[in-house]
Amino acid sequence: MVLLSVIEPVLILCTLCLYIILIWRIFKVKSKLQISELKNGLGKLPKKRKIAIAGLAFFLICFAGRLLTELWSPSMLMAFNYEEASKGQNPNGTRFNESDILSDEILKKVIERGDLKISVEKLSDLLTLSTPLDSQKLDVSKESDMKISTEYWIQCSPRVSMYRTNPQTVLNFLVDVYRENFTLNYAENDSVLDLSFDGLEGMEYLDVKDYLQMQATKLKDYLPGNSNESSSYREEGSEETFASLYEKIQNFIDVELERYGAFVLENGLSSNRDTYQSRMQYANHILETSRKKDMAAHDVRIEAIDSYNAYMTRFVLIPTYDEEQEFYMSRTKVGVDYFADEATEFLESATETVEKMERNTYASAQIGKNNPTAQIHKQANEQIESLKAELLNLADQSRELCDTYIEEKRDGYMQVSFTSPSVPGIAIRCLLRTLLFVAAIGGLALLNPFYRERGQSRTGGLKAVMKEKKRKNKKTEEGARHERT
Prior knowledge:
Elements: H1 4-29, H2 35-43, H3 48-72, E1 76-80, H4 104-114, H5 120-126, E2 127-130, E3 151-156, H6 167-186, H7 205-229, H8 242-267, H9 273-307, E4 317-321, E5 327-331, H10 335-369, H11 374-411, E6 414-418, H12 423-484
Antiparallel strand pairs: 1-3, 1-6, 2-3, 4-5
């Protein structure tokens, strides 16, 4: 099949050779060419039928060669259809690199999967990558011309058939390998749905609540992303949506975990009382230091506000328009406004720190004054197992729904199509080349009488010269004989 790709270049080369011969003959007989004779010769052009047959044969061979070549070695269009593609990013937000498509790693896997008898370097030479933007003249200094392509043309040379395969097979292997690599490395990271409870072993009862809450929060925070894209999506045979699972996980945090925490505090449960109380004491010491820093920062800003002169704190109203083009008077901010905002933030942070310290103090006091029985410990352990089972069930439901949704979503990340030959386009191109070919052989046929006449005249002249020379030689010989006599 490699010969198919050679047909068109060979025909073009033949046409070029004919034109070289035509130009050379025109140069040789230009002195004998007359417009009237050319017109008469054009009207009486010999071998018209043979020229027409040659032109038809040229057209059919050119058309068949080009058509079969495009059928044998089609171009492949790879289009990326996810939202981030237009920003030059992968689905997970990392930068998209088009060179990965034909990277050595991908080509090596293509060779292994197809059991191809070819090296990575040679296969790389047979594959080309281009984009529709390559043919456009873009001015990178203009923001309007800063475009990112989401479509890529990939072509495989017909010469790949020398390695006992064909271009379309190679491209199919390339798509499969790259799709798997793209999904594995650049699709959404859903590993957050994989929960692990290995860290619960030997953990304090109240720390178990915080740990389970952290795991549940990871699940809860992952779901809104999919919900925003398709809020009503449901798995076949299930009524669960991303929103309903979000509510269940939120209910688990607000109700089940809080109920467990209240049970632990009420009974003063602890795996090691002394160690836990010492830890709470140290935690409150660190929190107290943070509170003092926040309050000091708050006081500094209040002092700075008091130091401002009343004249300096005046503000200015500026006439302007909002996003809806409605007129209003905009108030400008001054330094006092920024200090006030920061003072409020530091005060809120200090207040939250005090609340944490109070919770730690209460928990330490409850553990210190209670002496729970083995039955209470057993109930707490049973609650932990129940909470773990419930959270795992929510994770499994989330995983099942997300996997189904993401699988459908990933199917649309990359659309691949192969080009089909344009029969009218091929026919027009071959017709133009046929016209050039016919013009060449027609020109040669038209000049042939003049060229033959020139050849005959040169032959006749040569014969006359030879005859004259022969006559002179004869006279010379006769003179020599006469002298000897």
